[in-house]
Amino acid sequence: MCGIVGYLGGRQAAPILLEGLQKLEYRGYDSAGIAVIQNNAIEILKKSGKLAQLRAQMNGYMPESTAGIGHTRWATHGRPNDVNAHPHLDCQGRFAVVHNGIIENYLTLREWLISQGHVFRSETDTEVLPHLLEEFYMGDMVETIQRVIKKVDGSYAMVALALDEPNRLVAARHDSPLVVGLGEGENFLASDIPALLKHTRETYILEDGEIAVLTRQDVEVLDHSGRRVDKKVFHVKWEAAQAEKGGYDHFMLKEIHEQPRALKDTLSGRIAQDGSRVILNEINIPQEQLQQINKVVITACGTAFHAGLVGKNVIETLAGIPVEADIASELRYRNPLIDANSLVIVISQSGETADTLAALREAKRKGARVIAVTNVVDSSVAREADDVLYTWAGPEIAVASTKAYITQLLSMYLLGLYLAQNRGTLKDREIAQIITDLRKLPDKVASILENGTNIKEFVREHCNCENAFFIGRGLDYAVAMEGSLKLKEISYIHAEAYAAGELKHGTLALIVKDVPVVALVTQQALYDKTVSNIKEVKAREATVLAVATRGLEEVSKVADEVLYIPRTHQMLTPILAVVPLQLLAYYMAVSRGCDVDQPRNLAKSVTVE
Ligand code: AGP
Fold first, then answer.
1. Residues 6+ away with beta carbon under 8 Å from 115
2. How far apart are CA 558 and CA 552, in angstroms?
3. Lower CB density within 10 Å: C or N end of the chain?
4. What is the pLDDT of residues 222-276, one digit of tens each?
5. Which pLDDT belongs to residue 453?
6. Which residue puts its alpha carbon closest to atom 10 of ligand 1?
7. Residue 594 designated active-site
């Protein structure tokens, strides 16, 4: 999730581009860059690191140009460095492009372009775009962009600056946000509204497949077949701070709503076109070593550890290998039974958590093969692991992890299928069936968010409680762990998660009248057992909020309130079941007036032991 901007007008472009990027830095801060046309050449100014690094490098220099594009990067393909920073140029420096999204077929396009004589400078997927422009340009940028986007698979919001057409900016979007800002004698482009607010509140929100052609006087929007679109002006009422949150009150709520996107991005390029198998090019474990693996150890901290708990169940079921899930701060001092036949999976959103890093080093010291699942390109765990599976959730600003967690769950399914494929533990049709259900998850999460959940009443009734319990069996227990952590860390309610069958061995003593109990009921095979545990707490007059899969409506007879999630493959329910729990924690925290995005005593990345 990068931030892109464009400007065409009468004023000096560079300061306006830099200001816009400043407003979009929450979208990515691995590098920043601008391109302008000056002295009949495209001038590129770019630098790895935060925008401040670029400003320092420019040292007050501002190119004299009234047209330009800019970018702030969240790395996905290619490490954060100066060469991989955007904007990217073609061979002759006639086309500059900034891009937000993922070009899934970039490797194929790159090979073809190289065979046509093009020379690449960076490791990025984006660089294929200016070379394609160079390859197809016949004198009209709009026609050329139309040809280029026919070649490209994946998601993109892109803006192109062409030396031959200095009075036009052409932009296109597919599956990545892009907004046009309408001015007097000037026009703007941006990934998001915060970059525009200082200049205009009159905007066009571009739809998928649309192309915008900007001149200083006019903005023309064309649909995918080149027909002019009569765009409705969207007048922005938001304040700047609100705009950064996309109109949401908190980054956490915004990030909860970004989960369908995060799942789609993390799936992209990792499923065979025919849906028959997963493709993890980034995992390069020799076949022979894959066969010798006799143990998997998943290690992480906090929410990432909870994703590991689901991973334990999933990998054991799919690949038939014994899996241990271990808290990193425990594993590193436990002299774990790990050796060269062990596969260790470390999970970390930030990639910088000290305990997880130390556990990674301990695993390597013992000769294990280490896969890192992380959300930050080139982070420490990424650099030190043997293989890296990136979750493409984009920057996660709120301390409470939501979209990163859901993409970590997805990574566990991808790794489970990968191991099953390579060890022949699943039939092809079983793999294809799970992949079919996986691909439907982004829309199912979106439907949970769109339909909203009737938790407001439960929140009103219980937001002043001091204790709460989460119960579940099997995968539901692992999700209950995450639900209780979310509630604890942002609402400060003392919440505990229990394997539902464990309650009667002690904790049931804590269940008294009206204590809120959240019960996860998504596992068909464990339905009767879980319902009997709900009856146990109801017998002590607890108030039960159940999260159940559609089809298990019977649970409404024993629970006070039921939040239904769409049906899916039994093993995949955690990705759906956690969403109502994230929303419950969020609304509980809001109703208690807590600082949702920056809870007390916590930090987004814990880099100390
Ligand atoms: C989760 O909401 C918390 N922010 C925390 O538990 C977090 O998951 C933990 O600190 C691990 O962080 P990491 O994924 O960046 O390693």
1. none
2. 12
3. C
4. 998 889 999 999 988 777 666 678 788 999 999 999 999 999 999 988 999 899 9
5. 65
6. 302
7. no
Residue 400 three-state SS = coil
Strand partners, 519: 471, 546
Cα separations in angstroms, 385 against 336, 339, 344, 388, 420: 18, 15, 10, 7, 22
Of 2, 23, 301, 444, which residue is the catalytic one?
2
What the block records as the tokens of 529 is: 């057992």
CA distance linking residue 497 with residue 101, whole number of Å: 37
CA of 374 to the centre of ligand 1 (A): 11
Residues 347, 350: Cα–Cα separation, whole Å: 9
Tell me, what's the pLDDT at 243? 66
Helical H runs in 339-427? 354-365, 380-384, 403-423
Rg, C-alpha atoms of the chain: 25
Tell me the pTM: 0.83
User: Cα of 334 to ligand 1 centre, how many Å?
Assistant: 21
| Residue tagged active-site, from 50, 295, 538, 604 | 604
**Model confidence pLDDT, tens digit, residues 148-184:** 999 998 889 999 999 999 999 999 999 888 999 999 9
Closest Cα to residue 255, out of 547, 496, 490, 17? 490
**Measured from the CA of 301, which atom of ligand 1 is nearest?**
11
